[in-house]
Known about the structure:
The chain has three domains: 1-81 and 164-264, no CATH class; 266-343, no CATH class; 366-531, Histidine kinase-like ATPase, C-terminal domain (Heat Shock Protein 90). The protein is 51% helix and 15% strand. The chain contains 14 helices and 15 strands. It has helices at 3-65, 99-108, 119-127, 130-141, 152-158, 165-176, 216-222, 266-330, 336-361, 374-391, 403-406, 414-431, 485-495, 523-531, and strands at 74-79, 190-193, 198-205, 208-215, 230-231, 245-248, 252-253, 256-259, 370-372, 395-398, 410-412, 437-445, 448-454, 499-504, 510-517. The protein is rod-shaped and about 180 Å long.
Amino acid sequence: xxxxxxxxxxxxxxxxxxxxxxxxxxxxxxxxxxxxxxxxxxxxxxxxxxxxxxxxxxxxxxxxxxxxxxxxxxxxxxxxxxxxxxxxxxxxxxxxxxxxxxxxxxxxxxxxxxxxxxxxxxxxxxxxxxxxxxxxxxxxxxxxxxxxxxxxxxxxxxxxxxxxxxxxxxxxxxxxxxxxxxxxxxxxxxxxxxxxxxxxxxxxxxxxxxxxxxxxxxxxxxxxxxxxxxxxxxxxxxxxxxxxxxxxxxxxxxxxxxxxxxxxxxxxxxxxxxxxxxxxxxxxxxxxxxxxxxxxxxxxxxxxxxxxxxxxxxxxxxxxxxxxxxxxxxxxxxxxxxxxxxxxxxxxxxxxxxxxxxxxxxxxxxxxxxxxxxxxxxxxxxxxxxxxxxxxxxxxxxxxxxxxxxxxxxxxxxxxxxxxxxxxxxxxxxxxxxxxxxxxxxxxxxxxxxxxxxxxxxxxxxxxxxxxxxxxxxxxxxxxxxxxxxxxxxxxxxxxxxxxxxxxxxxxxxxxxxxxxxxxxxxxxxxxxxxxxx
Length: 534
């Protein structure tokens, strides 16, 4: 194939490759753009969710200060310690004060004595009544009185609280409460995410410490973001942790929200890219297949041209000889008997060539099966080719099995098998050694018959052994021919459900064997159809 065909095909392949690369890059860029947009959206969602949680916390803090906390919110209040009594700081012993003054201290005092004890508790102890102790105890456990946690068990015992669990809870709360000096002044709060998964906030207003605790899950639900964001320390689906976007909630230590970006799965992108390159590769294969088909077509055309040239040459030679002999005889010159024999010989040669061409045109037709005797076919072929073999001083060695072989029958297309054997024997005579020997054998192999023709010629080269069975293909030889003989043999073998075997070695001759079933597939049905009267 010349460069005028290869150049446009090469350019086409280059264009397909460039298109595939550009399309692949566009797919990758588009995937990256979608992924970047998804990450940007996730960042914005996380930031807005954090501000939403912060706003919800602010509403809870206002409700806590207003003593109207929402559901799920735990509130802590306690008077900051120490706080000295100013109203009742007379220095007079509490046991010597009037009952009215002591009752007022029990109900209203939030101060401490000089020793740092709650005045209300001391006044209740001084009164000694059950009612005063009950009121003082209620104020004590509810955090309305300034008390040091170390003094709390003793004071609770004095008020008759005994093993009241509220005392233990208050003591734990007082010990966990931040120092008064570190608390911000309302409306500011110190907010922290605890290990329990709750948000704890503390502030002070006047001399009172205010604290609250709310579960983080409730905050997310009340902020209406639970379907979009979750706590950063919550476990995420497998493979999603590296892709999630984190946003801290303002003014809350340790509280961060995580949002999973809606990045599409990479599997469709990979599938699309794989499909793209599969299409490019398929295009390459298609072009390669088309190029191979074109090459085969060009080779077939070249072989047909060579065949026509060969047939033309073969026809011209006997026709020229016949014309020359006829002109000579018409002028009354020459020996008519000798010239007549030459005319008959050239006519026979011309007829054989025409038969060969006609046989090729009938190669694709269905075989006409009938009962035949294979040995008779072989004998007739040998007898027909003997004159040509004698012309090249070649001896044909054929052992006729006689009566034993005549009893063997087969269902073949007898004329097609005869033509195939003629071609094999003709090739052996033409390409074999001059003065050599050709062996023709027939032997049964199970349900098949093997008809072989062996010569002692130069053999067939390795690279020619498969291609010589193609139409118009000739091996490296100086003998005249059309390259159709072995193609016809192969076609006859296939039509009978058989095969052609070749055993050859360079310099030691070749053996072609036509192996045919005695009853080819479909032969019985064909015979039955031939018996049906029209």
